Amino acid sequence: MIFIYSNDQPLVNLCMDLFKRKYGATHLSSKNKLSSPDIGENDILIVDFKSCNEKELPPITYPCMALVSIPQNDQALRLLRRGIRAYGNRHMHEGNLVQAVTALEAGQIWLPPAILSQMISVLPQTRIPEQEKPLLKELTSREAEVAEWLVKGLSNKEIGEKMFVSIRTVKAHLTSVFKKTGCRDRLELAMRLK
Fold first, then answer.
1. Average per-residue pLDDT in the chain?
2. Which of 22, 29, 149, 188 has its CB 3.0 to 4.6 Å from that of 183, i.e. a possible disulfide?
3. Of 30 and 122, which is predicted with more confidence?
4. 68 φ, ψ (degrees, to nearest 5)
5. HSE on the CB side for 148, CA within 13 Å?
6. 160-173: b (≥16 Cβ within 10 Å) or e
7. Sequence ranges of the domains in the chain
């Protein structure tokens, strides 16, 4: 079930249209319902921060997405620390909204590409631990190259430009890398390899 908290009726309508058929969707009419016992660990909560601020957010124990007017790196990091697992612009494209919910459903983190790349690039670089080296041995040379660029914080487009391949090819390599390494997303892969 998808729970949506927003006072913005067009945003509520969009979420209801996108998610009601597949997941079921409910509009929460008040901030007090953000900590409702009806929201379970397998449900997803979408919170519009135009209708609620960070201080009013209860402790997060279920997959949650924060939608904000202007995404910012420092806010994304604060919210990740509080348990938010998806973060983006409240006016994002419908496809990205669906992608974020799908990522939450799979237990992944979803962030705007620019913020994700920034977070990955500031992770401290360390020597790859011995237990992680087998991760790289399973990869083809091109997959390993994609993984190396990803760890440096490059977007799919930037990786494609560096490798002279299409974004579609980069995505195909990343799908294979995630499958072979068991990593669920870019951030997990970067953290394991950095």
1. 87
2. 188
3. 30
4. -125, 165
5. 11
6. beebebeeebbeeb
7. 2-111, 119-193
Task: Give the sign of the dihedral formed by CA 135, CA 141, CA 143, CA 144.
Answer: positive
DSSP state of 31: G
Residue with tokens 């519009």: 48
Mean pLDDT of 5-28: 93
- Cα(155)–Cα(113) distance, integer angstroms: 7
Q: Are strands 64-68 and 25-28 parallel, antiparallel or unpaired?
A: unpaired
Q: Mind listing the pLDDT tens digit for each residue in 134-155?
A: 667 788 999 999 998 988 888 8
Pick the CATH number of 119-193 from 1.10.10.10, 2.40.50.140, 2.40.110.10, 3.40.640.10: 1.10.10.10
